[in-house]
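Feature request, filed as a ticket because there's no other form

It would be nice if the structure record came with a short human-readable summary line next to the tokens. Right now we just get the raw output. Example of a typical job, pasted below so the devs can see what we mean:
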Amino acid sequence: ARASGSWDGMSDPLLGMLFDALVWYGEIDLVKALGGRLEGKVEGIRFLEALVKVLADHGDDQMSSSGPSLAGGCLSYLQDLLPSDCRVPSLVVDAVAFCRDRIPRDYGREFADRVAFSFEVSSISSSVTPNSVLRSNAEGTLQTLLRLGPDLLGRAREFVDVFRVPRAKVADVLVKSFFKGLLICHRDVSDEASSSSYEPAYNAEEFDKCAGVCGDDAELGRALLNIILTKHHLPSEFEVEVIILAYQYYEAAHAMNGVDVLTTLAIGRVSTYAEIGEHKAIVRLLNGIGQSKLRQHAIDALAASDKLELLLKKRTSNDAKERTVSRRRNLKREILSSLHRRGGGGDAGDAGDLDMALHHFNKTRLVANGLVRRAEEVLGSAGRADEGTSLRAARLLSEASSIFQSIGCVRRAATTIHRARELTMAAQ
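Raw output as currently delivered:
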């Protein structure tokens, strides 16, 4: 195609395809020569030539919100090239949009859309030039747009559509960006870890906000699962968020095979986290996935490790959306079931966990009865009551009496405190 004579005999559609290719690769001289052959046959061909000229002169410039202006030579070139009734805008971004809007869909419009998008993004972010957007790989450009924050999410979605980025590739970019911490700018509130709450470095909220850029739940689930299966020694705070997200996206896509795989994986991770002391990760996993078998296994693991207070007292911003009435009711049933199954009351630690759980769920009468039962067990286990045993039982009964009194069980409170006083007198 370097020699114009080689175009002789080509049909108009074939010449149009050749023209489109030359435009794509920025061959300005050939575009101009071939454009003369097609003028009058392809609508808007001169505007496409003009667009290529602007890209050649300003593609490596950094745009700004208000400029820059077209170079004098470029402006003259465009004005001479276009019909006399076309007044070319003086600003580069406006001139690009002017030309793009006058190019039909048949020839060069896809290229024109990409050029216009590249100039628009460069005008928003001074860190990129039109050519860097246009020529870079899709992964790098998409990560740049995601890193610029929530205001650019619309542009990121537009980039995926205009550059026809495969959904699988978009999902992979989102997961990698999540892992690198590039999506943290999409959180509503900066999460700060403290000794009283589990605030992870990775927050599912930021990923969920960016997921619309992909728009394919199954691909998102696949990409999330893939990073768990292919990368070893992931930080537990990242791994647990990815397991939860993958489960949720597979579930949303009705991909039950993926849901089953994630459930099995999560159950295995609970056992692993318990062994290495990552109990906060177990709490997050329990609150993030509603599968009953997993939840019961997680509660059993926390109770066995004497870490149930993490579930009852320490909440995270990640868990906020899980605080529904039905979820709380299920949690109450599952915790009490686990403790009763483990013999809550037969062992001092289990009895303490049961009392703590009952207090948490406002079962005050049961708490008081539990204290009375523990006092009886203390006395019974000693064989012959000594001073220390009697005083310990008396303290338990005194606490039980106060609870009975607080809920209006006056008679029961009186008999319990009377028994406590008898034990105290006997010990003196």
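Something like this underneath would help us a lot:
The mean pLDDT is 77.
Residues 343 and 350 are 7 Å apart (CA to CA).
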